[in-house]
Structures are given as C-alpha cells and as structure tokens.
Amino acid sequence: RSVTRSYYRNSAGGMLLFDLTNRTSFESVRRWHREVTDTLQPSRLVFLLVGHKSDLVGQRRVARREAEKLAASLGVQYVETSAKDATNVVQAFQMLTLAIYQALQSGRLSPTGAWDGVKSRVPLPIQHKAGEQEKEEEKKKCSC
C-alpha cells in the first residue's frame, strides 16, 4: 500500500478505472476513491471515472446509467473507453486535463511552493492550428 500511495501523492488528478465486464471492479471504485482522498487530506484531487472495455458489449456487467449515477455521487465526470479500438482514450485524458485546469482556474485546486504536482509558473503550451507548427519550425531554421 505504501508504494501505491507514493504514486498519487502530490498528484493533481487521477482516473478511477473499472472494467465494464467485471462487476467487482466497479464495486471497488468507492473504496479506491476513499483511499486516495483519505491519504491526500487536506489536498484535493480531480478525478475522472472511466469504464473501460466498452467494445465488449455482450460481456458488459455494468450499465452506463449505473456508472453515471456513481460518477455523479462522487462529483466526477464519466467516460467509457476501449483500448482495443481506441474509443474515447484520448478524450479521457483531455477530459481529466481540462478538469484539472478548470480546478486550478477556479481555485478549487491550488498549487503551493512545496507541491510536486502542477507548477504554477509553468506556462500552458500553446496549441497550434494545423500547419502553424511547421511554420514555427521553419522560422527557427538557419536561412544561410
């Protein structure tokens, strides 16, 4: 347990991941959530509930509505993913990143000098539109 706790100490966010085809994993989510929040007190962590293996429709043991209800009770967002066909995998990380950013902006999550998580002085990377990245790289090249 102490090794596990070292993984999420000083974290800004985390995914509570359960297997849609495994009822026991779903039933463990509350315990996992409680373990992390108890360990990190008084710090707050931004969570995203993720039901994975959404491609295995015939083997599903957890209904979407039930998972959404759990997410609402924990005060987190919910998304279903599939690593097999890459459904919503990128979206899950984007959702968590955006939720962390919004928590920082609202003051619900606040970095301190001693905190190893999100650094308050590090500027957010600028997202370039298609083609702009190449133009920026061309400007950096020597014109000799």
Automatic annotation (TrEMBL):
Q: Which GO terms describe its molecular function?
A: GTP binding; GTPase activity
- Keyword tags: GTP-binding, Nucleotide-binding
Residues passing through the membrane, by range: none
State whether keyword Transcription regulation applies.
no
Query: Which Gene3D superfamilies does the entry link to?
Result: P-loop containing nucleotide triphosphate hydrolases
Q: Which InterPro entries match?
A: P-loop_NTPase, Rab_GTPases_membrane_traffic, Small_GTPase
| Family annotation (SUPFAM superfamilies) | P-loop containing nucleoside triphosphate hydrolases
Task: State whether keyword Nucleotide-binding applies.
Answer: yes
Q: What's the superkingdom here?
A: Eukaryota
Q: Which Pfam families match?
A: Ras
Q: What is this protein called?
A: Ras-related protein Rab-39A
Give the source species: Calypte anna
